[in-house]
């Protein structure tokens, strides 16, 4: 019964997403302030910073810091939203779509929300630590200590992002703008997350950021889907809400649910999930987690878009051709469930 009521409520919000229609030009954007900064970081002293003769090998560098770019709209503002990208990507995920449409970072800003976009630690504009690589290169450490670096090829990513079951097949009705796929592939970068401790240093950095902001919705995607939950487990201070988009994992429903009862949670999935062995178990486990939180007195919801009649969405929901309508669903959920200060 609860699932039926939930689906009906979201369906009332989401009907426009059934058919993509053009929107009028939004006009000039007025920004009250914008900037960037770093959260976290630690110093590393090493004698293997370089293998190039013109640069000193010994010295001190700062690593594990998280880059943050922010923009705040003029006038009265809504709850801030922090956007956290997934595997093999950077904060570019949330910016202009591959085919040139408005990204969620700008759209949320235009709807009155301050927006914070991060690059995960060791990704994009957040520095990596090259000292171990150079130590192996110079023979100071054995080869088996060489850090693991992963890059997703176009062919393998095709199925992971659910464009099709295998490259270059396309799922029927799929809404990702494949005509602009070359621009999407340019967004992908090497992933060094396997070299980082658990939790990823991005997690305590997100906790520090949430407290610095004074209350924010942590909106994550894919690999980073678990990070807002890990952040809340450290401290719920500053975590006004969690929106996890197609997370690689949700918390174990038998774990301590205390932190999650204090935070409104929405987990969002797109289409075709049941057709992929990578994704179907993840949706199932997230449903179990949400049910456990709700039973414990919290507010956690899972929304699979086909259940409210929205079909064709890939793993990259924020870039699909109906991305702004999906954004509207999330904004209405925030308006209904999230208060600015927590």
UniProtKB/TrEMBL annotation:
InterPro entries for the chain: AB_hydrolase_fold (IPR029058), Carboxylesterase_BioH (IPR050228)
Keyword Nucleotidyltransferase annotated: no
Region forming the signal peptide: 1-19
Keyword Signal attached: yes
Alphabetically ordered keywords of this record: Signal
CDD domains documented for this protein: Esterase_713 (cd12807)
Protein name: Esterase
Native source organism of the sequence: Methylobacterium isbiliense
């Amino acid at each position: 019964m609860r699932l039926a009521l939930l689906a009906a409520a979201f369906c009332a919000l989401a009907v426009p997403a059934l058919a993509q229609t053009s929107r009028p030009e939004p006009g000039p954007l007025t920004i009250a302030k914008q900037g960037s900064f770093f959260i976290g970081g630690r110093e590393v002293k090493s004698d293997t910073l370089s293998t190039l003769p013109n640069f000193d090998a010994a010295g001190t560098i700062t690593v594990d810091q998280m880059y943050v770019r922010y923009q705040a709209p003029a006038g009265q503002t809504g709850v801030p939203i922090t956007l956290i990208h997934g595997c093999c990507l950077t904060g570019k995920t949330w910016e202009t779509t591959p085919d040139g449409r408005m990204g969620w970072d700008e759209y949320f800003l235009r709807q009155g929300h301050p927006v914070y976009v991060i690059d995960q630690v060791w990704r994009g504009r957040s520095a990596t630590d090259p000292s171990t690589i150079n130590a192996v290169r110079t023979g100071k450490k054995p080869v088996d200590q060489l850090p693991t670096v992963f890059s997703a090829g176009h062919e393998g990513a095709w199925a992971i992002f659910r464009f099709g079951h295998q490259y270059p097949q396309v799922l029927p009705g799929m809404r990702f703008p494949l005509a602009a796929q070359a621009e999407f592939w340019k967004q992908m970068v090497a992933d060094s997350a396997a070299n980082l401790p658990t939790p990823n240093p991005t997690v305590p950095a997100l906790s520090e950021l949430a407290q610095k902001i004074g209350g924010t919705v942590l909106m994550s995607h894919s690999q980073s889907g678990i990070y807002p939950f890990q952040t809340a487990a450290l401290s719920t201070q500053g975590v006004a809400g969690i929106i996890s988009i197609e997370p690689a994992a949700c918390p174990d429903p038998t774990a301590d649910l205390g932190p999650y009862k204090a935070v409104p949670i929405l987990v969002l999935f797109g289409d075709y999930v049941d057709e992929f062995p990578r994704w179907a178990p993840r949706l199932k486990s997230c449903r179990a987690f949400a049910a456990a939180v709700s039973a414990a007195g919290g507010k956690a919801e899972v929304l699979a878009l086909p259940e409210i009649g929205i079909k064709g969405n890939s793993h990259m929901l924020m870039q699909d051709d109906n991305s702004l309508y999906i954004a509207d669903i999330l904004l209405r959920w925030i308006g209904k469930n999230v208060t600015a200060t927590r």
